[in-house]
Amino acid sequence: MTNLPQIKEGTDYAARAQWLRAAMLGANDGLVSISSLMMGIGATKAGSKAMILTGFTALLAGSCSMAAGEFVSVHSQLEIETARMKRERRSAVENGGREAKLIPNPLLAAMASALAFLLGGIVPLLAAAFVDDCRVGVGVVAAAGTLGMAAFGGVGAALGGTGLVGGCGRVVVGGWVAMGTTFGLTKLVGDSGFGGVVDVIE
């Protein structure tokens, strides 16, 4: 017999999913992308200050990008859902004579995504802020990123009523792949001599 997550009766997970998806996507994207970027900069041995400055810049740019992208995406979904509900108004869901209100909110999704990106991305920034050695900073960012991904995965699983182990595992493994790929490829490019071309340009 498998251990299935306990679903509380009366909990509207469908309505919760409207903002939960945007929030979890933003938090995970912020954590993974900022951690990966900082580790990539660390692979070039550019220094801890370069890691932090690059991470901070990416944090601001990423949160704005997430908010704009989520707003446009959810607004398009809103238009589609509104048109569908107008076509199906006569056959509304049997819910005491009321229509099911699962219309997405573009502004709420944008705000949730942006704030969640900031929350996720600030984790590796804070972790690296107290480290002067770039090589140590890479390890600290990787550790902080892993703990953060596990935490966000657990929160998402709890709020969504899904399996805790599976939710955490997917987020952590995906993050490891992203961070490892970024670090490895950046180091490979830097060691190949391309960094010298950048120095000449500068």
Report on the architecture of this protein:
Helix content is 79%, strand content 0%. By secondary structure, the protein is mainly alpha-helical. The protein has one domain (14-93, 100-191). 32% of the residues are buried. Residues 1-10 have low confidence and may be disordered.
The main β sheet shows up as: none
The global form is: elongated
Unreliable runs, pLDDT <50, ≥5 residues? 1-10
Oligomer: single chain
The counted number of beta strands is: 0
* Mean pLDDT reading: 78
Strand and helix layout:
Elements: H1 13-43, H2 48-87, H3 106-128, H4 134-160, H5 164-201
Helix pairs in contact: 1-2, 1-3, 1-4, 1-5, 2-3, 3-4, 4-5
GO molecular function: iron ion sequestering activity; iron ion transmembrane transporter activity
Family: Belongs to the CCC1 family.
Membrane topology: Multi-pass membrane protein
Keywords:
202 residues, disordered N terminus
Quickly describe the structure.
The protein has 202 residues and is an all-alpha fold. It is built from five helices and no strands. It is found in: Vacuole membrane.
